[in-house]
Design a protein that fits this description.
The complex is a heterodimer of chains A (96) and B (389). Chain A is built from 3 helices and 4 strands, in the order E-H-E-E-H-E-H. Chain A is an alpha+beta fold. In chain A, 21% of the residues lie in helices and 12% in strands. The chains are: A alpha+beta (96), B alpha/beta (389). The complex binds iron/sulfur cluster (SF4) (2 copies). One iron/sulfur cluster binds next to helix 2 of chain A.
C-alpha cells in the first residue's frame, strides 16, 4: 500500500553520506538505498516520515520533517494551536 | 527494599498490572532499586536470578491464560486502559554476562510478545518506561527514546550485569533512538533487531542480521482487522450525541416532541449513521487496498456512498422517503464514513504527517459545506413535513 504521491519531506545529501547503511537498516518501508556507497531515495512515495533515518544518521545526510501520520493528532494540534501531537490524554485516535 | 518470597507470585494481587483509567502520561515517581525491578512481584515472574547487582526477576516465557485474556482486553478497550509492566531488567531463561539484551516497552502486550518469542532462549529483557505505550507509538512520541534508554541502562546497572556492550532494540523503536548518542552517553551500541518479535530467534541465530523482509513493516488484512474494535469502540462512545439529535429532530412536531415520530421517522437516519460508521471504521480498513484512491478520506467517502446508497436502494428508501431527507442523508453519510476512515490513518502503518495534513486541508471545506448543506436539506424536509412548503 502506498500513500499520497510526492508528498514526503524526505531529502538526502549523498555528499555527506559515508555509506554506513544505518538509515537503510532502520527504514520500515525500504525507501532508501545505497549506490556507490552513497545514499539515494529508492521509493519516495513509501516514506511515512517516521524520522528513523534522520535520527540515526550520524552525518546529517538524510533529513525529513518527522511526525505521526495520524488524523486525530493533526486535528488536535490545530484545535490546540500546537504541533500535531497524539496526546494520549485525549480519547480519540489510536496512533498511540 | 523488601524481598518477597521467591517463586510464590501472589495471584490475587498484582501491583504491576494496573488498569489505569487515565493514560498515565504523568510519569509517577518510582522508587528505583538497584537492579531496577528486583522487588516486584507479578504473575509473570517465575523466580529470581542472582547477579552481581542483586536479584533479577525471571519471567515465564509461556503465556498464562491471564496474560492472553489481558491481551484480548487491551485489544478491545481504548488505549487509555493501559496494561503496564514495571520498567527494569528481567531474565528469560537463565542468562549470564554473555547473554543478549533485548529492549522493549513497558506495554504489557509488547512485553508478553517478546517473552513468548524468547521461549527456550537465555536472554535479558530491558523494559523501558514508555507509560504503557507500545514501542512504535512511544518512539514516535519520543518516550521510547534515547534519554530513557540511557537512563534505564544506567539505573539497572546493565554494564555490571553483562560483559558486552550491545543492546538489541526493536527496529520500530528507531524513530525515537539516536544510536550515536546512546553510544556516546552509555557506552552501549544499539543493534537494531527485526520489526516483529517472532523473528528475534532467527535474527540472533543469523549473527544479528535481518533479511530485507524482517525489516519491512506490513499492514496485512489481519493487522488491519485487529485494529478495528478499538476504532469502532471509540466512535460508538460518542454515538449517543448523534442518536439524541436524531430522536429530537425527528420527534419535533408543531405540538412538541413526539417520540413515536422519533422512532418511526428517525430510525432510517439512525441506521444510516450506524452504517456509515461501519463503512468508514470497519469496511474501509479491512478492504483498504481494494478501494480506489490513495487518500483515506476518498476511500471512506466511496465506501460510505456505495454502502449507504446500496442499502437505501435495497430497502426502498429512495422511493418511500421525502426527497429532501434522502438528499440530506446521501450528503451526510458518505462524509461521515470519510471522516471515520480518515481517523484510521492513526492506526495505519504507512501514512505520513505531510500526507495527513494535505488530506485534511482538502477535505475540511467539503466536510464543513457538506454538513451545512445536509442540515439545510433536513430543515427543508422538516418544513415540508409540517406542510410549510
Ligand atoms: S546513515 Fe547516513 S551516512 Fe549512513 S548510509 Fe545512511 S545517509 Fe549515509
Ligand atoms: S522517514 Fe522513515 S519511512 Fe521515510 S525514509 Fe526515513 S526511515 Fe524510511
Amino acid at each position: 500500500m502506498i500513500y499520497l504521491k510526492d508528498i514526503t519531506t524526505l531529502q538526502v545529501f549523498p555528499e555527506k553520506c559515508t555509506g554506513c547503511g544505518r538509515c537503510i537498516e532502520v527504514c520500515p518501508h525500504a525507501v532508501l538505498k545505497l549506490e556507490d556507497r552513497k545514499v539515494l531515495i529508492a521509493d519516495k512515495d513509501r516514506c511515512m516520515e517516521c524520522g528513523a533515518c534522520e535520527k540515526n544518521c550520524d552525518f546529517g545526510a538524510v533529513s525529513v520533517n518527522a511526525g505521526v501520520g495520524c488524523a486525530a493528532a493533526v486535528i488536535n494540534g490545530i484545535i490546540r494551536g500546537t504541533e500535531p501531537n497524539c496526546d494520549c490524554s485525549g480519547s480519540s485516535g489510536s496512533c498511540c | 527494599m523488601k524481598f518477597e518470597p521467591i517463586n510464590t507470585p501472589d495471584k490475587r494481587f498484582s501491583p504491576i498490572i494496573n488498569s489505569k483509567q487515565d493514560c498515565g502520561c504523568s510519569v509517577p515517581e518510582k522508587a528505583d532499586s538497584i537492579s531496577g525491578a528486583a522487588s516486584i512481584q507479578a504473575p509473570y515472574i517465575s523466580g529470581y536470578i542472582k547477579t552481581a547487582t542483586g536479584d533479577i526477576p525471571q519471567v515465564y516465557t509461556v503465556l498464562s491464560r491471564r496474560d492472553k485474556w489481558e491481551t484480548v482486553k487491551a485489544r478491545m478497550s481504548s488505549f487509555r486502559m493501559s496494561f503496564t509492566v514495571e520498567p527494569g531488567i528481567y531474565a528469560a531463561g537463565n542468562p549470564d554476562e554473555n547473554s543478549d539484551v533485548i529492549v522493549t516497552a513497558n506495554y504489557k502486550m509488547s512485553f508478553d510478545t517478546v517473552r513468548r518469542e524468547l521461549n527456550g532462549m537465555n536472554v535479558w529483557i530491558l523494559v523501558l518506561d514508555t507509560n504503557g505505550i507500545n514501542v512504535w507509538c512511544a518512539a514516535g512520541k519520543g518516550t521510547f527514546g534515547t534519554d530513557e534508554l540511557v537512563r534505564r541502562i544506567s539505573r539497572t546497572n546493565l554494564s555490571k550485569i553483562v560483559s558486552h556492550k550491545n543492546v538489541i532494540v526493536p527496529q520500530l523503536g528507531a524513530p525515537g533512538i539516536d544510536s550515536g548518542e546512546v553510544r556516546r552517553k552509555s557506552g552501549f551500541r544499539v543493534v537494531y533487531g527485526p520489526v516483529r518479535a517472532k523473528d528475534l530467534p532467527l535474527f540472533i541465530r543469523n549473527g544479528y542480521k535481518c533479511d530485507a523482509e524482517m525489516r519491512r513493516v506490513r499492514f496485512g488484512i489481519a493487522d488491519r482487522l485487529i485494529l478495528t474494535p478499538i476504532e469502532l469502540r471509540q466512535i460508538f462512545a460518542k454515538f449517543h450525541y448523534f442518536a439524541l439529535f436524531v430522536l429530537i429532530f425527528f420527534g419535533l412536531t408543531t405540538e412538541g416532541i413526539i417520540f413515536r415520530d422519533s422512532i418511526m421517522k428517525g430510525y432510517f437516519f439512525l441506521a444510516g449513521g450506524i452504517l456509515s460508521i461501519f463503512a468508514g471504521a470497519f469496511f474501509t480498513p479491512v478492504f483498504l487496498p481494494y478501494i480506489p484512491f490513495r487518500a483515506f478520506t476518498m476511500k471512506g467517502w466511496i465506501a460510505g456512498l456505495v454502502l449507504s446508497g446500496g442499502a437505501f436502494y435495497i430497502s426502498g428508501v429512495f422511493e418511500s422517503y421525502n426527497i429532501f431527507l434522502v438528499i440530506s442523508a446521501m450528503i451526510l453519510f458518505p462524509l461521515l464514513s470519510s471522516y471515520m476512515a480518515f481517523q484510521f490513518t492513526g492506526a495505519s502503518t504507512y501514512t505520513s504527517l505531510s500526507g495527513v495534513k494535505r488530506e485534511l486541508k482538502i477535505a475540511l471545506p467539503f466536510y464543513i459545506s457538506g454538513l451545512i448543506l445536509s442540515f439545510i436539506f433536513l430543515i427543508l424536509y422538516k418544513a415540508s413535513d409540517w406542510g410549510m412548503i
